[in-house]
Design a protein that fits this description.
Nuclear Transport Factor 2, Chain: A
């Protein structure tokens, strides 16, 4: 049940920050490009209600801790994505990277922020926006 709450919160935060806007190059171009691609994958996964794609962009350590494997993540995320209904498209306004955590602001009626985490050199969506940890990937990532 806790997993469902976490997924609902994640999908809800994606819905709240749905908006339109431009982009800002306030960090390295490599990180900026990787985060932009991640947001595009998030948009596609939520629009297509693709639980498999959604679980693959979630922070691996959180998926392992919460679901124990990707198959369980997919089976529990599928009905939640369907129930969430149509989601707006996220458009990046600014990206600010601080180590293995990125704060991404999306534009719209009101600016909203979401955090992303880097694990083993790759950017992911954390399962929870309130409990972001970077307990993996610190050894292989720069900055």
């Amino acid at each position: 049940m806790l997993r469902k709450v976490a997924i609902c919160a994640l999908i809800g935060s994606a819905t709240l920050v749905s908006a339109c806007g431009g982009s800002d190059d306030s960090t390295s171009s490599e990180d900026s490009q990787a985060i932009t691609e991640l947001v595009a994958k998030l948009n596609q996964a939520t629009q297509e209600k693709d639980a498999s794609a959604f679980c693959l962009i979630m922070q691996p350590s959180a998926v392992e801790q919460t679901f124990h494997d990707i198959d369980r993540c997919v089976s529990e995320t599928t009905p939640i994505l369907k129930a969430a209904g149509d989601q707006g498209v996220l458009k990046i306004d600014t990206i600010e990277v601080n180590g293995d955590i990125a704060a991404v602001t999306f534009q719209g009626g009101t600016s909203r922020e979401a955090k992303f985490v880097k694990e083993d050199g790759q950017w992911y969506v954390p399962l929870s926006q309130s409990e972001i940890t970077t307990n993996q990937g610190s050894n292989g990532s720069e900055g």
